[in-house]
Each structure stands twice: as structure tokens, then as C-alpha cells.
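[Meeting: bench + compute handoff]

Bench side (C.D.) handed over the final construct sequence. Compute side (W.E.) agreed to return the predicted structure before the next meeting so the bench team could plan truncations. Sequence as handed over:
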Amino acid sequence: MGYRSVLLKLSGEALGQEGHGLHRPAIDLISRQIGEVAHSGVRLAIVVGGGNILRGRDVADTVTVRATADQMGMLATMINGLALMDGLERAGCEARLMSAVAAHQICEPFIRRRAIRHFEKGRVVIFAGGTGNPYFSTDTAAALRAMEIKAEVLFKGTKVDGIYDSDPLKNPGAQKFESLTYLDVLKKDLKVMDATAISLCKDNKLPIVVYNLRQKGMLKRIVRGEKVGTMVKE
């Protein structure tokens, strides 16, 4: 059993070199994997973060108003969305960039029915600009967009192969969870996604799969329904 409609949450750091800036080999690696899945007939949408360029909280000491800082972060996601769209086109995959923040000269506004129409034409849709509102993370934007387009599952690509009880990059003895409930994630205060995003998925019974973005072929395996990474569900 596999998935036919997927929302993929990508961190901005995945597009950079050591988490910073934009790195063409990293973009091409991700784009090839996404293209391979899209060409198999799976409807695929992507929500991209902006942490490789700027997060709102990173400029909290520079910018007085939190809303302004978050808007800077939204613009960073648009830059990443353009870079990813370019990478997907190099990989032979037709893509469209839609944003919750209006920028008509560089991307389409997010309109749910238009996004679904792109899917019907076999295009990968990249969602930028978060939710378009301050105080909401791109994780929450991913959960929201997944619901709006009726995705079957939310994939969260990370630097490790699932959810652990502590950071495995810092603690070699960290224990991996094969599966968790939404309440487990909230009660254990696991930092894989923020609480708002987890709660939204819980309320709408949207499963989450956390996997290693950098492992070649992993995205295709998960789409096929193989049990890799960590599954979060009811």
C-alpha cells in the first residue's frame, strides 16, 4: 500500500551548505528525489522553510516588532521556493510556486482550487510564505496546506532517520521511536514539529512520517508504503 497524495515539509537548511545559504548540489539532490516520485504519478506538494536564510526569531534582537521579524522569515521561504522550483525544472519536473504572501511578479498567490488544478496536470506545487501570518511556523503551514489539498500524509524531512528521545547527533545513546501517537509527541515534548502543527494533524487525523531527507531513495520508499522513519498517528 502506497500514498497517492503527499505534502512534504522541507527545512530551509536542507537547501544550503551546512545549513546556510543555497547550495546547488543539495538542491539538485532533493530535486531529483522529488522528481522521481512525481514522475511515478504521485501528487506532491512541498512547504519550504527559510532557516538557511533567516528565521524570525533570529532577528528578535534587531527588529522591535515580532510580526515584522516573522514577515522577514516569510520572504526567506519565497527565496527558497524559487530556488527549489528552479532545481525541479532542471530535474525535468514541472513545478509551480504559490505563496501566502502576495508577490505577483515572481509567484502565484495561494488559491486552493488552483493548487489542486496544478496537481491534476501533474505539477509539483511549492507553498511559500508560511501561512501568511506572524506567530505561525512553517510546520503549521505544512499541516494546514496538507488539510486544504486533502493530502493523505505529511512527510517531514530531517537530518536524522526518525524521531528520537534526544538529539542523536549529540547523544549517541539516543533511542529511536518506530511509531508514536500525537499525544506521545506532545507529552514527551519532542521537538520534531511545533505543538500547533501536531495538534492540527491530530484533530484531522493526518499521519506524519519523519525520515532522513539526505538518504538517497528514502522518499520513494516511504511513498511506496515501506516502514521507514517514524510514523506519528492516532
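W.E. noted at the follow-up: The chain has a mean pLDDT of 93. C.D. will use this when planning the next construct.
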